[in-house]
Amino acid sequence: MFLEHYGLIEQPFGVTPDPRFLHLGAKHREAVASLLYGTESNRGFLALIAQPGMGKTSLLFQYLEYLRNRTRTAYIFQTDCDSREFLRYLLTDLGVDASGKDLAGMHEALNQILLEEMRAGRRFVLVIDEAQNLRENVLESIRLLSNFETPWMKLMQIVLAGQPQLADRLASPAMAQLRQRVSMVIRIDPFTPEEVNSYIDHRLRVAGCEKPMIFTAGARKVIAEHSEGIPRNINNLCFNAMSLGCALKRQTIDRDILTDVIADLDLEPLREKLTLVQTPKAAPTKFARPALSSAQKNSIFGSWGLKLTAAAAVLLLLSWAGMHAEHRKAPVAEIPASTATAISAPSVPTGSLAAPTVSATTAAVVPTAHVELALSPVVEAVPDSKLDSVQVTRGQTLYQISLKNLGTYNEAIRDKFQGLNPWLSDPNHIQPGQKIRIPSATVSTDPQRGVEQASSAAPAEAGKQ
Q: Degrees (nearest 5) of the Cα angle 174, 179, 180?
């Protein structure tokens, strides 16, 4: 290690709450004074709240050291427990064997200890560290412990010490009775930059360092900024900086070494590397596609089904026209167009791929002009050359697109939009990045209407005969 390199007799920035290394800043001294005053004033419940790493446990040990000769104390830090376990921990700390005792028996044993201490003229102080982890029913049991009292004084003083979550627990409506009994709430604030310097110097001197200026002024400024004045963070930075300085054979820790240490302690790059390792490689995509909900996926798949069905119907009609062209090669008597009976295009059910049944006699007497007339609305329904398309931007609606490109919007225009864009099942929900075809006033935009016109051609011609 670096002890010999820096001339130290022990580790100056350890992780244990050694009271010899305790450095009391202004807020720490104020917190200890408040705890002692609340105890001397017999205030019942006291609360000590501080961020993690602020030296709360070291301060509690200092507080208990002040009370050693005139007060019976108990210190509990195992707070992830139920009420029965909590009382067992308390009696065990007091030297009482609680095995085999029920809840009532443990309360009786504790009451006996409190009465003995009162007769001896000593106070009894219970310190509960990490109290933010206590369950509500355990906190309620602790509140009932404060009922051990005489008409003149409380037999037990209780200090609840914990992180800021403890304040949230005490402020909840369920803890109203306990909160009313907490007479003092004591806070510990982070060190100022000046206190950070004093803290570093104090720990180096206790560790036997003859040159407290191992850390330069620039390094100390970086430590004060990056640690946010929290003692535990200061310890981590100083320990790693001295370790790196020893490896580099440096007697002085400067800003550059601190910069390297901070980069090494940064966990974000490690989290990114871990994510890259665990994420399987995906094929590169040319365009980013927005995520679709289940309803949108069903809508898209349904629209593709309709498009495939419509395409199959057109192919069947073209096949039927080809069959008719083959029959025209046989000598057939010409029938005038004005008197010929028009045969309607065979009806193709939606979703059916079966070819229509056409008899040879019927096909022979159908004029070519009538076949072309029946098919023309379907083939010429939407010429791509006459259509414009726009790409939807974020927040844009079909109503806005219609006003911008056509100057108006109504149900007929909406039907044209849906005819040109079969996937547009819900005009009120369109996705950014999609392309929408714009209808033209001179072009029929409804392919289904063309098929309906073809199917109604034969009855119309029959009425003219």
A: 115
Q: Is the pTM of this model over 0.85?
A: no
Check if CATH label 2.40.300.10 holds for domain 26-188: no
Domain ranges of the chain: 3-9+192-268, 26-188, 294-381+449-464, 384-445
- The 3-state secondary structure of the chain reads CCHHHHCCCCCCCCCCCCHHHCCCCHHHHHHHHHHHHHHHCCCCEEEEEECCCCCHHHHHHHHHHHHCCCEEEEEECCCCCCHHHHHHHHHHHCCCCCCCCCHHHHHHHHHHHHHHHHHCCCEEEEEECCHHHCCHHHHHHHHHHCCCECCCCECCEEEEEECCHHHHHHHCHHHHHHHHHEEEEEEECCCCHHHHHHHHHHHHHHCCCCCHHHECHHHHHHHHHHHCCCHHHHHHHHHHHHHHHHHCCCCCECHHHHHHHHHHHCCHHHHHHHHHHHCCCCCCCCCCCCCCCHHHHHHHHHHHHHHHHHHHHHHHHHHHHHHHHHHCCCCCCCCCCCCCCCCCCCCCCCCCCCCCCCCHHHHHHCCHHHHHHHHHHHHCCCCHHHCEEEECCCCCCHHHHHHHHHCCCCHHHHHHHHHHCCCCCCCCCCCCCCEEEECCCCCCCCHHHHHHHHHCHHHHHHHHC
Query: Does residue 369 have a pLDDT over 60?
Result: no
pLDDT tens digits for range 13-52: 988 888 888 888 888 999 999 999 999 988 889 999 999 9
Q: What is the CATH number of domain 384-445?
A: 3.10.350.10
> Selecting from 3.30.420.40, 1.10.3720.10, 1.10.8.60, 3.40.50.300, what CATH number does the domain 3-9+192-268 have?
1.10.8.60
